[in-house]
Amino acid sequence: MATDMPIRIGVMGCAEIARKVSRAIHLAPNAVIAAVASRSLEKAKLFASSNGYPQSAKIHGSYESILEDQEVDALYVPLPTSLHVEWAIRAAENGKHILLEKPVAMNVAEFDKIVAACEANGVQFMDGTMWAHHPRTAKLKEFLSDSDRFGQLKNIHCCFSFAADEDFLKNDIRVKPSLDGLGALGDAGWYAIRATLLANNFELPKTVTASPGAILNESGVILSCGASLSWENGQTATIYCSFLANLTMEITAIGTKGTLRVHDFVIPFQESGASFTTSTKSWFNDSVTAWVNPPSEHMVKTELPQEACMVREFARLVGEIKNNGAKPNGFWPNISRKTQLVVDAVKESLDKNYEQISLSGH
Q1: CATH number at residue 241
Q2: Which of these, 204, 205, 159, lies nearest to 184 by C-alpha position?
Q3: Within this chain, do residues 317 and 299 fall inside the same structural domain, yes or no?
Q4: Cα 238 to the chain's mean position, in Å?
Q5: Number of domains comprising the chain
Q6: Same domain, 178 and 116
């Protein structure tokens, strides 16, 4: 049956992250690697052989060539951010569904052009935020929306940092203004911002203010920064992202009745499962020497790693369009756009000497 045919995904670019997603495509039950493209045929061949691509996968020596491949349903695009607007639009115009690495664009104006092309050509868009697809994430949302256990959200703090080595800080595309000019904000900050939005049911904050003390390299690319966010209803959040601090990926969400903590939200400590802690109506004992109702830990097992869960969901949506005439799911481009809007606001605040930026009207 046609509906049982796996979605044929092409990999457009041989970035390091493409190794991980190539494995994810192998593992996803409803997807197959159909092709790979690089600007060099030799590089594409080497990438395919070193990542266990099937013999049936076609090797393309240019990005234009994979766009024209009629045996490719969708493209995974891990190109530098500065190239996203051109190649994502061209992919959509060639009828290819798009799984695009984050940050999705250099700014929301660029991303809106990508979305317009996807809508005009009826193709599915999804960004590469892997942790959103881990089954744990659904459990986090479940707790956050439980008015009896969590209550109303008051504050969230989220950080993602890692201590990059000297080679990374000199040569990685994420520190080059012409390639990934958003630096740590577009990379690590994207995840922290997405987490704060998820905790707020993807409602945009009213204001965003970058925190003093941001560190930029000599080319003006952000290596470390923070920001505070506030919502109409009084909820607040702080984020921190850095290429200069020890590996940390934390979410702390505090409600009127409960608290949620996640210590490994971007990449779980282990692939087969991920945990989080919750506490509800915690207090002290009579002598105020210990807690009553201390936090409890919850483990969520998964048969597939989170990146394969992402590919499986992307392929499912593409399959619905291809086989059943469904319309593209607008949830994913919508939350990508909101994340990009907050990224843009933090960047604008930094550029304006930590001025408060209003997101009203967006």
Answers
A1: 3.30.360.10
A2: 159
A3: no
A4: 18
A5: 2
A6: no
Note the pLDDT tens digit of each residue in 2-21.
456 999 999 999 888 899 99
Residue with tokens 């690590």: 188
For 322-349, write each residue's pLDDT tens digit. Answer: 999 999 999 999 999 999 999 999 999 9
Structure token pair of residue 98: 């798009």
Structural domain contains residue 332: no
What are 198's two structure tokens?
């998820």
Distance of CA 23 to the CA centre of its chain: 18
Indicate left, alpha or beta for 281 from its phi (over 0: left) and psi (-120 to 50: alpha).
Answer: left
Type and span of the H or E element at 259: strand 258-262
Residues 6+ apart with CB under 8 A from 40: 61
Co-location of 158 and 94 in the same domain: no
Whether 260 and 278 have beta carbons less than 8 Å apart is answered as: yes
Model pLDDT, residue 1? 40
pTM, 2 dp? 0.96
Inside any domain, residue 334: no
Q: Which domain holds residue 35?
A: 2-131+307-327
